[in-house]
Design a protein that fits this description.
This protein is 2% helix and 46% strand. It is mainly beta.
Length: 318
């Protein structure tokens, strides 16, 4: 893949190929409910488009008690795809550093007490970072010069960068997407497969014990662990304009879907397991807004209502 092509895809590296959807368990979305409780111990971290510049976003935090939106850690940070440690002290995100060469996008670390700094990883654009719960390890996707993608893990300071080698079927061009650490930090959930047909997999952090979870004619992406480590939420796609939030129990394989219209992406479980945050354009099909819903499909709540694009919600401890 040449530099011109890389420039064209830079603003949308987090997006995956489109596919189709199986039947849904919920017939229609629940009516939006009043805002969250005042007892919540976590707020919602996300990326928000900069007004007048659709290719730039900044990291924001929405107070779960008041709805007030503020800058992450009191700093104006341009970036996307944030991931946060369980204690809320560290955030890793992706940012476009330069479009002048192949290594145009890097991962950055910011803490409550320090300014952002680039993580010293090997050459190549990185995206879809996932910080381990203890904040010490990092999983991410790296793009090769040929335009392929590979799953990597490294220490949060960039040392010990290692490709996760998987015993997948030979002879195919595989793509990798959206890794996520299990709550105990021992396993990785990610998507892999042929372009346009990515399936969910789970593997031990050292690359052993690979298990494929889904195998449909469509793509399953954006995997997210429930706090119990036994349930996941993810996205099943239909086309660039239609995708569904799904829930799957790992032990039984039982699935169900939320039948919200249009695009629904990037689910994130609250630490108490009571809500799932996600983004959707279900209301006006113009731009992505933040929502939450209970795992049983009730309590749909719209959190933002503006002309700005919100993406990549993550719960962050206060």
């Amino acid at each position: 893949m040449n530099l011109t092509a890389l420039r064209r895809i830079a603003p949308v590296l987090a997006l995956s190929a489109a596919t189709s959807l199986t039947a849904c368990a919920y017939d229609s979305p629940a009516a939006p409910e009043p805002g969250p409780t005042l007892e919540a111990s976590h707020d919602l971290l996300f990326e928000q488009a900069v007004p007048g510049n659709i290719n730039e976003s900044q990291l924001k935090v929405r107070d779960d008690r008041t709805g007030v939106v503020r800058d992450l850690f009191g700093q104006t940070i341009s970036g996307a795809q944030p991931t946060v440690s369980a204690d809320g002290q560290r955030v890793v995100y992706a940012a476009i550093r330069s479009l002048d060469d192949y290594d145009f996008q890097d991962l950055f670390l910011v803490t409550r007490t320090s300014a952002p700094r680039r993580i010293a990883l090997a050459t190549g654009p990185e995206f879809s970072p996932a910080l381990s719960p203890n904040g010490q390890r990092l999983a991410f996707i790296k793009m090769t010069e040929e335009g392929n993608t590979q799953l990597y893990v490294a220490d949060v300071d960039g040392r010990n960068e290692t490709a996760v080698s998987l015993a997948l079927a030979p002879g195919l061009r595989y793509g990798y997407s959206t890794p996520a650490w299990s709550p105990d930090g021992t396993r990785l959930l990610f998507s892999a497969g042929e372009p346009g047909r990515l399936h969910l997999h789970v593997v031990n952090a050292n690359g052993s014990g690979l298990r494929q979870l889904t195998d449909t004619s469509v793509s399953d992406i954006d995997g997210a662990w429930a706090p119990d480590g036994q349930t996941i939420a993810y996205v099943r796609t239909v086309s660039p304009s239609q995708s569904q939030i799904m829930i799957r129990h790992l032990s039984t394989g039982a699935e169900r879907a939320f039948s919200f219209p249009w695009r629904n992406r990037q689910p994130a479980w609250s630490p108490d397991g009571q809500r799932i945050a996600f983004v959707s354009n279900m209301t006006d099909n113009q731009d992505l807004e933040l929502y939450t819903v209970r795992p049983d499909g009730s309590g749909l709540t719209r959190l933002t209502d503006d002309m700005l694009r919100q993406q990549s919600p993550r719960w962050i401890a206060r």
